[in-house]
Give the backbone structure.
Amino acid sequence: MALLCGIDIGTSATKTLLCNEKGRVLATASVEYPVYAPKPGWSEQEPEDWWKATAKGVALVCKKAKKKPSQITGIGLSGQMHGSVFVDRAGRSLRRALLWNDQRTVAECAEIEKRAGGRKQLIKMVSNVALTGFTAPKILWVRKHDPRTYGKTHKVLLPKDYIRLCLTGEYAAEVSDAAGTLLLDVKNRRWHTGLLSKLGIDADLMAPVYESPEVTGKISAAAAKLTGLKEGTPVVGGAGDQPAGAVGNGIVRAGIVSATMGTSGVVFAHADRPVPNEEGNLQSFCHAVPGKWCVFGCMLSAGGSFQWLRNTLLAEQVKAAVKAKRDPGELYPQMIKEAESAPPGC
């Protein structure tokens, strides 16, 4: 029976899952890494940390399931959305990635609206307003404040698409995640060359876009040597974490809504056609379901606040868990149990 591997590049950790073709989960693993905040409102990560966690996660799930990485026959990717990874022609990351919850780009958001011809015109182009979390303002920020890096940049990738590059050597994006860059024509599921031109962003910086189930590359010889995966194993487009989670929860037809909590908290609904978003008060994206769309609202500080609470109040227990090579996430049920004993409103 085929073995399938799902790799999710999360904000707090990379989660890896091994299952068979019937969807039976054989093993899971989680490998954490730090978020850097060098200034208030800034949020960054090292893309290389994601890659190390990916290799470790694949090894862990295979060990738990008593399988070999070479037995895996297909790989899917999901991950935190909106992050910006700047890579050179050799595919090397040039700087820390600016994450979805980074708030430094207020001025760039205003610049994007102005260059687009106003907020309403921007919504007509890409179905969304300029938010600090999106990728486009991050690109403008790096161009203005880190021109040395920008001048060396060959491609700007989303987090999971950087891992795709590490696995396959291929540059590719897919529509559900690309919709969160503020540079995709969401209605027509392709890069909006008109907006890219208005912003002075070379369209060649953006990777080709695919639908989520499409094969976007195959495991390279270099990645096979490092991970034990079989060279030539297909890697599909995958999806941004929210659309991917929606598919997993069956939010694949109109009338179904989900509420999920990871680092952020999201209420998500499926749509059979592009959702008019004249007010710009929701995110209107392409779904991971080919030819479908979605609409959702997001709160940036949900599980991330929970992790901060754990690391702050249970710092010694977190250190002990790491030292003993246990998952610090095992402390969360303990926190929940203690919280249940507190009276409401205390």
Notes: The chain has a mean pLDDT of 95. The two ends are 53 Å apart (CA to CA).
